[in-house]
Design brief:
The complex is a heterodimer. By secondary structure, chain A is of the alpha+beta class. Chain A has 23 helices and 49 strands. The chains are: A alpha+beta, B mainly beta.
Chain lengths: 1010, 97
């Protein structure tokens, strides 16, 4: 550490605790309470980063969250590597390892800085103009190169090992910002009896007071400001109605007063406890919100304003007073506001030589200037900056006064290693804007201020243009008291606002607001050096002027073309100056130019914080069937179907899927297979009007369905397209057991409820989801009856229980609903038993079936078996644009029904067109060729784009039973094309296919009725 | 995340609800009697209101009931929620101009 750069005492650092850290591999040391930036400055290091586009050397412009330049990566280990942190916010800890970004091979010597020499060729939008041809080179050459040369930090390469917590909270008043206005607000609200949460992004409460010199004479109620701060924080801390959150950024404002807070818990610790979450994301629903976000100092736009050592005047005060760091030895101040004079005088007191104050305002000569002159600092009124010198640190500044025409007079060059600038203060209206509140332009203040709110929110203090400690405290207290009154008013229930939104009261007296300077400083037409507006995105005043010359007028377009105000920075330091330049160039006042939208997050938030605990196994719930453990124990390979885990196949002795599925298929067709169908959606439809309800909803005729019988039902939407299908059984005169597809159960129930509640509320029907109440065991194959007959207490012979019969009974001593149904084309039963008995009954059936070679099979085999029979799967062979006739299912339509959902649509001209796609079978010439599902089908061989497909393949498998591949497809006028040859597009040339019936196996259905 | 006042259960957060599209779009009593154009309008044509919009919500993860709401699409604020079959309350003037 360079001892000469620390003040002898003072500041909020703990000089008894020295901390070692490294930056780009070099060892440094600082003190507890330092940030990385303050410790580097104390070590004489100003060069902290390279700029985004031109790789220009950059130092810390600001001292807080608005810092656009000093972006660093902090590394704890290979997995814990966080890029793009602002060095001004990184708290120092013992052993901290930080790295600069966007430079190679080193920060001091960066090859990419050659971009700076080519700057004349890299203006705004250069990549739109330059990298046009050849077209293919954009992806392969230009974009990767540009991305490598321009950019921010790199991502860590390993999975994030840290834990992130989530918390929901409610409060009467949420106060954002722990500066004077926020603390006064929280104090007033809490003493009025409100439950208060106050959050602040810094490691300490106090806001702007933290940058004040000790005993700076800013008294509060007769107490020094520092004492008031300590006592106020102590009182809030001990108040049980108040929750104080430090290191917590309110990053987003969402509808109905929901705010997202990001609390950082361990990043400042040298050795975080392993059981601590790294961050906690709060979702706070507040009845009333007080925004006390303060204001951000505005930089000045002049040539060469980006060299290390050029910084905001307020930042220099922070380095000096909060961290005890001298940011330079010989300073020049450029200002358009009074606050910078305080910085000049405080620095001079601390031993910095202040060579000059360049005052931009014409009428300079007020009390502040007089004080400076009295202290021996020359004040140059009506000045401008023509340029600066120095490579990795500023070493000179060229100042000039303006003549009466506003033209610069002769320049005077001042040697210096520190330039302070201040263009005034921009109220931080980010969160108010995010809440969709209006912003109004205040001409006197030259700032956008919060206007009519769209939520129950108030702004207080500097963020609404009320400056000066006394005024901010009064404003904060008034806002806090008003918010508490509204939040706890009698009759106020819930968060949702019932009355009008808070009015904006006039600011209290005594605000010291002043307009400052907006835009680019006066400069000669052929000046040298670039004047930066947006440090983070390397946007200069000339870039903005160029965009306007090229015809961009909307501020939203200018923003996107030049990238000003974009990315992680969201224009904190740049927005207003950019607007000023656009306004001046277009000759339109700023409020007419408009303002771009402030987007969340206010500062970047880690992905882990959003994911919270919802990672890995906790990402989604997992649904398993009662037979899941049996399947797992028998080697099942599972697949995800929605949230369900379903057994896909049961490989034996090293079989691959192809072999296992072939064996399982042959077992079902040749003997007996066992299948877990529990995931099928099940809805019990009960009531006096149950039949009428199903008549109106499904396409089928239900009135004629006898008790103890089932039917294949099709459900359309009112647009006429297939929505779901499944077997519907009549259990009694007034009750039906409806099954749906596995994925369709919730949406079918929702649709049923919709029609029942809103279209036919007169019907007396109750709907109950029973998906999880029934375990369903499908026993399929020629031996199915033989397997089951010894286990059930009812007659299941072909005459007593024909195909589509349904009967109650007992199996293995357990009550069951037995369906004789088949999705395989074989003789089959589906045994429904209460879910708790599913596993036992499954095992009972399996043991009884062993004599018949019973074979468990999975979803893949189920798919092949149903495709051999031409049975559709909704969502695979249909896609939301398929009518029953398209799918070859018009036989199911109740011909004599006056109406059902979707019926009217089936008569629309487009839905009766003969050119519609119809489901057909597709047979390859080579029986071993299995088509690709989704492949396009063409009428002619060798058709090349642009051409029109006449259909596509929906299902395709190898059928080991048939000894050949089979496929189904939706083909325009498909049924009229049976026997035709079509061509399926494939990587290795078109594959000829013959159009056929989609029923490949047992077309007469003899096996089904066995 | 919105806060929605279910007329049966009270104020609940948005994840408990499902949006149900524009309200007061009645299915024709006799679909066979309406023209293709009228039927297409019923199926597909919806308002795209900038201002107060009458819409359906279902308290799926609560009472399961459908209900209607008046929401200002500019601010996302609900002016009223009411039960199926009830007339919408006289449109409250929007809070914001």
């Amino acid at each position: 550490m360079n001892e000469g750069l620390r003040t002898p005492g003072g500041g909020r650092i703990d000089r008894s605790r020295a901390l070692r850290f490294s930056f780009d591999g070099r060892a440094y040391s600082g003190f507890a309470g330092d940030t990385l930036a303050s410790a580097l400055l104390a070590s004489g290091v100003h060069l902290m980063g390279r700029s985004f586009k031109y790789h220009r050397p950059r130092g810390a412009l600001a001292a807080g969250a608005e810092e656009p330049n000093a972006l660093v990566a902090v590394r704890r280990d290979a997995a814990r590597y966080t890029p793009n942190l602002r060095a001004t916010q990184v708290e120092l800890y013992e052993g901290l390892e930080a790295h600069s970004q966007n430079r190679w091979p080193s920060l001091a010597f960066d090859v990419g800085a050659v971009n700076d020499l080519f700057a004349p060729f890299l203006p705004a939008g250069f990549y739109y103009k330059t990298f046009m041809w050849p077209r293919g080179a954009w992806q392969t050459l230009y974009e990767p190169r540009i991305r490598a040369a321009a950019g921010l930090g790199r991502s860590p390469t390993l999975a994030d090992p840290d834990r992130y917590a989530a918390r929901y909270a409610h409060c009467d008043v949420l106060v954002v910002g722990g500066g004077p206005a926020g603390l006064a607000s929280a104090t007033a609200a809490a003493s009025a009896g409100a439950r208060v949460i106050l959050c602040d992004e810094q490691n300490e409460l106090g806001g702007s007071l933290l940058a004040d010199a000790p005993g700076a004479g800013l008294g509060v109620d007769g107490r020094p400001a520092g004492q008031w701060l300590a006592e106020t924080v102590a009182a809030l801390t001990s108040n049980t109605r108040v929750t104080l959150l430090i290191r917590t950024t309110a990053f987003g404002y969402f509808p109905h007063n929901l705010l997202g807070l990001n609390e950082r818990l361990t990043d400042h610790l040298a050795e975080p406890r392993p059981d601590m979450p790294r961050e906690r994301q709060w979702q706070v629903r507040a009845r009333e919100v007080v925004l006390a976000a303060g204001a951000l100092e505005r930089p000045l736009v002049f040539p060469g304003n980006d060299r290390p050592g050029i910084m905001l005047a307020g930042a220099a005060r922070t380095w000096l007073n909060r961290y005890g760091v001298l940011p330079g030895t010989r300073a020049v101040v450029v200002t358009a506001c009074d606050e910078a004079y305080d910085a000049a005088l405080e620095l001079q007191d601390a031993g910095v030589f202040v060579a000059a104050i360049a005052e931009l305002r014409t009428g300079a000569g007020g009390a502040e200037a007089a004080k400076a002159r009295a202290a021996g600092i020359p004040v140059l009124p009506r000045a401008t900056v023509l340029g600066t010198g120095g490579r990795r640190r500023v070493n000179s500044i060229s100042l000039a006064q303006l003549d009466d025409a506003g033209e610069p007079l002769a320049a005077e060059t001042q040697p210096c290693d520190l330039v302070l600038m201040s263009g005034g203060f921009t109220p931080s209206v980010h969160l108010h804007s995010q809440s969709r509140g209006r912003l109004v332009w205040d001409a006197a203040l030259q700032a956008f201020l919060p206007g009519d709110p769209a939520e129950r929110v108030r702004s207080a203090g500097a963020c609404r243009g009320v400056f000066g400690l006394a005024a901010a405290l009064a404003d904060g207290a008034a806002a806090g008291a008003a918010a508490a009154r509204e939040a706890t008013a009698p009759g106020r229930t819930g968060v949702r606002p019932s009355g009008p939104f808070p009015a904006t009261p006039a600011p209290a007296n005594g605000s010291t607001a002043a307009p400052g300077f907006v835009g680019v400083l006066p400069r000669p037409a052929r000046g040298r050096g670039r004047a930066f507006v947006d440090w983070q995105n390397d946007v200069t005043a000339s870039d903005l002027e160029l965009a306007l010359r090229e015809g961009f007028r909307s501020i939203e377009h200018v923003k996107r073309y030049t990238t000003t105000g974009m990315a992680t920075d969201q224009g904190k330091t740049s927005n207003l100056n950019a607007l000023g330049i656009v306004s001046r160039t277009l000759g339109k006042p700023i409020p007419e130019v408009g303002l771009t939208t402030f987007r969340m997050p206010y500062t970047p938030v880690s992905f882990g914080s959003f994911a919270g605990p919802a990672r890995g196994e906790l990402l989604d719930p997992v649904r398993t069937t009662p037979m899941h453990e049996w399947a797992r124990a028998h080697g099942a390979v599972f697949e995800d179907v929605g949230l369900w885990k379903r057994a896909r196949y049961f490989p034996r002795g090293g079989e691959d899927m192809h072999a296992a599925v072939g064996r399982e298929c042959r077992a079902v067709r040749g003997g007996c297979g066992l299948f877990d169908a529990s995931t099928l959606g099940k809805i019990e439809v009960v009531g006096r009007d149950a039949v009428l309800f199903l008549e109106r909803l499904y396409v089928n005729a239900w009135a004629s369905l006898a008790v103890g019988r089932a039917r294949y039902g099709i459900l359309l939407r009112d647009d006429g397209f297939i929505y779901d299908d499944g077997v519907v059984a009549r259990v009694s005169a007034r009750s039906f057991h409806v099954t749906t597809t596995t994925g369709g159960a919730p949406r079918v129930l929702a649709m049923m409820e919709d029609y029942l509640q809103t279209e036919w509320p007169d019907l007396e029907v109750w709907l109950t989801s029973t998906t999880e109440q029934w375990a369903v065991i499908a026993v399929q194959g020629p031996d199915a009856r033989a397997v089951l007959s010894g286990l059930v207490d009812i007659d299941i012979s072909a005459s007593a229980m024909p195909h589509m019969g349904v009967a109650p009974g007992y199996i293995c001593g357990v009550p069951m609903r037995l369906f004789r149904v088949s999705f395989t084309g074989e003789l089959g039963f589906e045994v429904n038993v209460p879910a708790d008995f599913g596993s036992a009954v499954w095992r009972g059936i399996y043991e009884a079936g062993e004599a018949h070679g019973i074979t468990p099979y999975g979803t893949e085999t189920m798919h092949v078996l149903r495709a051999e029979k031409g049975y559709i799967i909704v969502g695979q062979d249909t896609d939301g644009t398929i009518t029953p006739d398209d799918a070859g299912l018009s036989w199911a339509l109740g011909k004599n029904k006056p109406d059902f959902v979707g019926k009217r649509s089936l008569a629309r001209p487009a839905l009766v067109s003969p050119d519609r796609r119809q489901l057909v079978g597709l047979m390859t010439n080579d029986p071993r060729t299995v088509l690709e599902e989704g492949a396009q089908v063409m009428a002619n061989a060798g058709a090349r784009p642009p051409t029109r497909a006449i259909g596509h393949v929906t299902s395709s498998y190898y059928s080991s039973v048939l000894g050949r591949s089979i496929a189904m497809g939706l083909i325009a006028r498909g049924r009229a094309r049976v026997g035709e040859t079509l061509y399926v597009a494939a990587d290795r040339g078109d594959i000829p296919v013959k159009v056929a019936s989609p029923v490949f196996y047992d077309p007469e259905g003899k096996r089904l009725h066995a | 995340m919105l806060l929605i006042e279910c007329p049966y259960c009270g104020e609940r957060p948005e994840p408990e609800f499902q949006y149900g599209g524009q309200a007061h779009v009645a299915r024709p009593r006799d679909p066979a009697a309406v023209s293709t154009q009228e039927w297409a309008d019923y199926l597909y044509r919806r308002d795209n209101t900038r201002g107060v919009h009458a819409e359906r919500w279902r308290h799926t993860h609560g009472c399961g009931r459908f209900f209607n709401a008046l929401r200002d699409t500019r601010t996302d604020h609900f002016l009223a929620t009411y039960r199926v079959g009830e007339e919408p309350p006289a449109p409250v003037p929007p809070v914001l101009r």
